[in-house]
Amino acid sequence: MSTGQATPRASRFLDAGKRRICVSFEFFPPKTEEMEKTLWDSITRLAPLRPDFVSVTYGAGGTTRERTHTTVKRILAETELTPAAHLTCVAATCAEIDAVIGSYCAAGVRHIVALRGDPVGGLGESYAPHPGGYKNGADLVAGIKRQSDVEVSVSAYPEKHPDSPDVDADIDMLQAKVDAGATRAMTQFFFDNDHYFRYLDRVRARGITIPIVPGILPVQNFKQTKSFAARCGASVPDWLAERFDGLDEDVATRKLIAAAVAAEQVLDLVDRGVTDFHFYTMNRADLVYAVCHLLGLRPEGKVAA
């Protein structure tokens, strides 16, 4: 007869004082004054959790690139956070990208997230390297490391990149990025943790030993998330759709469900040995802060009981 006692779960014994759990947060540069306020409200809210770093996404083109640079410089100037600036190969020559690398380094950036980037016309188009530009993510990593000994993180794809023929081809590219000098990978978001662990097993079987940090996307808006997932090759399980079914106009309940879903995912990852997390914040703090609280993270001076 069962005693009703379950095996103790690691997530019930998180020790925030020892900082066993490490997190990073991803933001995107704002386009309007209202978005700017939302971003900085979120940064102010999340900064006391002392993430390892915060990353700022990067788009091809002058104005988007400048917004990234401005956001990174402000984080450096006004906070104690460590910013990691994103950089892509898209729509620029090697010389132009090298100039951006130089400007980041001059501003005090010591961590770059190197990505191939999406085609200029969006994820539906075929990617073609810019003539005279870096040809892919591994080539970009090598270019960064030739200029500066900054830390370089890269991307990983548990369900494969939309342009890859299969996961093995993705792992080939990850190996090339590691060989070029990358020391960390953050994954595309996923909702089924088994995808992450199957991918991790295959990566480790190849002898790749760098941290493969799971990317977590708390669902702020299910319809938008489903559309985004379709574009980037991430699957949306039927059970996830069912949890948000009928809540399009019920914002309060939708937020509660979103928090529960994200909490369930990260606590399962903790129970299965994961200690590092990269959160795609969508420039909003509420869900991310709640999940980090469950992970035992507290503002400086406060510890979990």
Task: Summarize the structure in words.
The protein is of the alpha/beta class and 305 residues long. 43% of the residues lie in helices and 14% in strands. Helix 4 packs parallel to helix 5 (167-180) and helix 9 packs parallel to helix 10 (286-294). The longest helix is centred in the last third of the chain and has 21 residues, at 251-271.
SSE layout and pairings?
Elements: E1 22-27, H1 33-46, E2 53-56, H2 62-78, E3 83-88, H3 94-107, E4 111-115, H4 137-147, E5 151-156, H5 167-180, E6 184-189, H6 193-205, E7 212-216, H7 222-232, H8 238-244, H9 251-271, E8 276-280, H10 286-294
Parallel strand pairs: 1-2, 1-8, 2-3, 3-4, 4-5, 5-6, 6-7, 7-8
Helix pairs in contact: 4-5, 9-10
Describe the largest sheet.
8 strands, parallel, barrel
- Radius of gyration over all CA atoms, rounded: 19 Å
Strand numbers in spatial order across the main sheet? 1-2-3-4-5-6-7-8
Q: From the helix content, strand content and strand pairing, which structural class follows? A: alpha/beta
The rough form would be described as: globular
What number is the mean pLDDT? 90
Characteristic terms for this protein:
305 residues, eight-stranded parallel beta barrel, 10 helices, 8 strands, globular
Put the structure in a nutshell.
43% of the residues lie in helices and 14% in strands.
